């Protein structure tokens, strides 16, 4: 792999061919907020939080850094008035769906986002796809997937597969930024295969709520 030098926030950063701007920034210790990125998964650019300003051949563009390839001589700004404004609106849109998601609450403080700017559509899922992609790419089980399209799009556990695969896994709970994966699974379990539960508590990151959309969730 060939090395190249680009500039991120005024700092010369070395990256290898095939790396994205986000990877180059992370390698250099420069923080770019992300929601749908996971080091073990293929990026798909769902949340747009990682948007940055890039300048190449005299032109400025706004790109999704988890998908945009690092290029020799590229000038990247991870914060600017416009980047912050775009990010603030994205946070506000996401908070219409999941107003209490810990990561979003933290980012809202940092970017001065108003969690009440957009009308609440409390689906509790921000459609980041982490649960779906983790189950497919890492576990290769495909027990949870997206259903419907447009505003009706949501994730759903497939009861037959979930009954077989999920009761002893539940690894997606810990990577879900909103706890909805856990709530959706528990609902599927309650309806389709009640009582089949892993003996030990799943490896879930501590979450601030014990109920989610009226559905009780396990707090580690
Ligand atoms: S359930 Fe969680 S991990 Fe899955 S798509 Fe929704 S927010 Fe993302
Ligand atoms: S982290 Fe890049 S689009 Fe979500």
Question: Describe it for me?
Answer:
The chain folds into three domains: 3-78, Ubiquitin-like (UB roll); 80-122, no CATH class; 125-220, 2-Layer Sandwich (Alpha-Beta Plaits), CATH 3.30.70. Helices cover 30% and strands 18% of the residues. Mean pLDDT is 90; it is low at 203-220. It has helices at 21-27, 81-97, 102-111, 130-138, 159-165, 172-175, 180-192; strands at residues 3-8, 11-16, 51-56, 59-64, 75-77, 144-147, 154-157, 211-212, 215-216. The protein is globular, with a radius of gyration of 19 Å. By secondary structure, the protein is an alpha+beta fold. A five-stranded mixed sheet has the order 2-1-5-3-4, sandwiched between helices.
Output the radius of gyration. 19 Å
Strand order within the widest sheet?
2-1-5-3-4
Q: Count of helical segments?
A: 7
**CATH-scheme architecture of the largest domain:** 2-Layer Sandwich
Total number of domains: 3
Per CATH, what is the topology of the largest domain? Alpha-Beta Plaits
Gross geometry: globular
Structural class: alpha+beta
What descriptive keywords fit this protein?
220 residues; alpha+beta; Ubiquitin-like (UB roll); Alpha-Beta Plaits; 5-stranded mixed beta sheet; two-stranded antiparallel ribbon; 7 helices; 18% strand; globular; disordered C terminus; binds iron/sulfur cluster; binds FE2/S2 (inorganic) cluster
């Amino acid at each position: 792999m060939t090395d190249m030098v680009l500039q991120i926030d005024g700092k010369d950063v070395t990256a290898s061919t095939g790396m994205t701007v986000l990877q180059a920034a992370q390698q250099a210790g420069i923080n770019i907020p992300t929601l749908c990125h996971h080091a073990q998964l293929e990026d798909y650019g769902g949340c747009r939080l990682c948007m940055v300003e890039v300048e190449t051949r005299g032109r400025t563009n706004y790109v999704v850094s988890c998908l945009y390839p690092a290029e020799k001589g590229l000038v990247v700004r991870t914060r600017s008035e416009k980047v912050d404004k775009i990010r603030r609106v994205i946070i506000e849109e996401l908070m219409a769906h999941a107003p209490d998601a810990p990561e979003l609450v933290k980012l809202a403080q940092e970017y001065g986002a108003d969690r009440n700017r957009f009308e609440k559509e409390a689906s509790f899922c921000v459609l980041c796809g982490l649960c779906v992609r983790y189950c497919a790419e890492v576990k290769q089980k495909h027990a949870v997937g997206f259903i419907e399209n447009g505003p009706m799009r949501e994730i759903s556990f497939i009861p037959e597969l979930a009954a077989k695969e999920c009761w002893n896994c539940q690894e997606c709970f810990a990577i879900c930024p909103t706890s909805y994966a856990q709530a959706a699974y528990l609902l599927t379990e309650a309806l389709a295969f009640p009582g089949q539960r892993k003996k030990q508590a799943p490896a879930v990151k501590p979450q601030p709520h014990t109920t989610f959309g009226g559905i009780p969730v396990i707090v580690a």
